Amino acid sequence: xxxxxxxxxxxxxxxxxxxxxxxxxxxxxxxxxxxxxxxxxxxxxxxxxxxxxxxxxxxxxxxxxxxxxxxxxxxxxxxxxxxxxxxxxxxxxxxxxxxxxxxxxxxxxxxxxxxxxxxxxxxxxxxxxxxxxxxxxxxxxxxxxxxxxxxxxxxxxxxxxxxxxxxxxxxxxxxxxxxxxxxxxxxxxxxxxxxxxxxxxxxxxxxxxxxxxxxxxxxxxxxxxxxxxxxxxxxxxx
Length: 238
Ligand SMILES: [Zn+2]
Fold this sequence. Notes:
This protein is of the alpha+beta class and 238 residues long. It has helices spanning 35-40, 65-72, 116-121, 123-135, 159-168, 187-197, 222-225, and strands at residues 6-8, 15-17, 25-29, 48-49, 59-62, 79-82, 88-93, 97-103, 108-114, 142-146, 176-179, 182-185, 205-207, 231-236.
């Protein structure tokens, strides 16, 4: 898909957005930081909810501002769903995929931290299921945006990961690539498959198709830099 994403310039940092999301406020920030995007989209650091991410598949449902915010701190979650306005749902990444979702009909949003372990554990499917269960979203109404993460160009994986994916997916060949005796995982391809299996139409899925490891100019990368910083992605209902 052409023009799947655009770069927004702000004096306090550039960020990417997806035209497909239309008026839903969202940003995939770069290593230049999140201040500019939060400012431009009417968010504040005080109203930014981020998670203690552990590469798991637990989904936090934010029904009540303060209680959920307090609860979120000690417990690990890798996805969050809400219909509350003025709370930016944020995910930190440095190679894993940030995935943002929005149901414009029911006005529900979600943010997901999706590395190989989270995807394999079902975090994407569980997030869509929670949007359906808690807020009556129809998967056909959900739009999903896959943010910048490590690409199949750089994401070499070992045999243990490969066999987990081959055992879990009949279509694993779509996102496992062999080159010169090494094996590479296409996380974005796996995420797309999970999203469509959860009922989201392929036409509702867009991606920032950039590799965090290749694009040192734009992104932190855990693989490339080891103790790298992380970039924020967030989504916000107004
Ligand atoms: Zn790459």
